[in-house]
Amino acid sequence: MARKDPSVSEGNPQLDAPSPSQTQSPIETTSVPAPLLAEAQEHHQRLKEGSSDISRPLPNEPAPFPPLTKAVTVEAPYSIFTTRVKWGLVLLVSTAGLFSPLSANIFLPVIPSIATDLNVSVEQVNLSVTWYMILQGVSPSIFGSIADVIGRRPVYLVTFLIYIGASIGLANTHVYWLLVVLRCVQASGSASVIAIGSGSIGDLSSPSERGGFMGAFSLGAMLGPCIGPVVGGLLAGAFGWQSLFWFLAASGGVVFVIMAAVLPETLRSIVGNGSIPAHGVNRSLLSLLRDRRHRNDPVDPNVIVPAMPPKKGWKDIRLLAPLKMFREKDVLSTLTFNSAVYTLFYTVTTSTSTSFKSTYHLSESEIGLCFLANGGGCLVASIFNGPRMNADYRKVAEQVEAARAAQKEETAANDDGKKRDLNDLSSFPIEHARLRSLPVFFGLLIASTIIYGWVLDKGVHLSVPLIMQFIVGLSVTSIFNSISTLLVDMYPGQSASATAANNLYRCLCGAAGTAVIDPIINALGPGWAFTMLSLLCCCFVPLIVLEWRCGMRFRAERAARLKRRAERKAAKKLEKGGVEQ
Hints:
Layout: H1 13-16, H2 34-48, E1 74-75, H3 83-97, H4 99-105, H5 111-117, H6 122-150, H7 152-171, H8 176-204, H9 207-239, H10 242-262, H11 268-271, H12 285-293, E2 303-304, H13 321-324, H14 329-350, H15 352-360, H16 364-407, H17 430-434, H18 438-458, H19 463-490, H20 495-524, H21 526-538, H22 541-580
Parallel strand pairs: 1-2
Transmembrane segments: 89-111, 157-179, 216-238, 244-263, 438-455, 467-491, 503-521, 527-548
Pfam families: MFS_1
Keywords: Membrane, Transmembrane, Transmembrane helix, Transport
């Protein structure tokens, strides 16, 4: 009988036993010769000591296979632009956004001079301010919708060309009606840049970094009310009121040249995350040079390029989207209150030049410097409102969680043990968080406005109305920031349309205020005029109280309605697809 090989026999104890590499010590065997046993012990000791010199194989050990390289799939960045480039672009669009408030406020100190030069009344010149504000509210809805289709860069360039042309025309006009028309054209060009700038920052930045960029972008808009009247007063005092518009045309031309040279297209439906080259007017000189520099770079097959949104056409423009929001109860009540506050604020600002000139007999340069008080209050509020609103949010969140724990209605964790998502606002009273400090600032606004009117009426020392204007600017900006943030919370996916609706409503109301403030002051005096307007503003307080008490219910009703609408659309689409098959 042939002898059976023990290495292949069933039930061989040596095969059934663990291999040396599977035991606690790789040297526990009696079948290894002494020299090989010494080598194995040395190798095992090097492994225990963490030595990197373990490349020498054991005797009779096969050579190791070369290491396998694992293909790593890399997610493409949200934007290919570096952080440094992003900050440069934010600085550029923030500078462009400065021109709308700058053009509005640089005009205020020279209203009396323009009225005298054109042989019209101050009330008639104020009508140009009224029409400026109307176009300032309407034009972003038009140009912003167009920019969402054809790209940010072309609309930037077109609107700035409109602005520069209108400024040159204003510098050469000596007719009242032409002044009004060109101011409307100027407003159309400058106001749209702010809406487009917000869209550009959304294209460039991910949600985690967007807050910082938006804060820097808004700083340009806040500098306009602060420096505009000062620049206007100084230029008009030295060179006449026409020099204001030459200054705006020249500075706008400089910004236009810079944008034409370096501002890239950012609309994601055209360039994705910036890696897809733009064409034609959407392509800047900077983008052209960058594409040429990297045209021979190899393409990494492991990088996943995010899918581009479908390209939009002219039929996708939704000019009426902001108007449809006024059908919502919470939006209408909030924006009506905010517009009343804005109107009161603008009556104070618009009447400053005529009131200070008649009461304190100041020159144009001195009147321009007086606007620093109001602008300084706005600037201080814009710096501190972010931390203040975050603190209000944390305070309300703590109160809500404490109340839930005390009532044992809900706990800080869901039934599955997961921590509650603090970003889910469906069951959180965000209205309480955003409006928590509003009564304080509204009280400051009403008190400072009434005092401001009476100190003007009695001719009290100039420092007192300036202090009141600082408080007015501080309180109004705090209210505006709270309302604007609440609107974004209400419409996180449609914040641009919500902002356009807010801008449209408050600018139209502010325009009405500027048209009537001078006749009211002439009839009643500044004391009773601002007292009456302040009390009228108080009449809208019940609307914000309604939002405080019922805002969460309004949001829930809207969410349920939108969900039902989406389900109906999905059902119709599914039914249509079944019929076609």
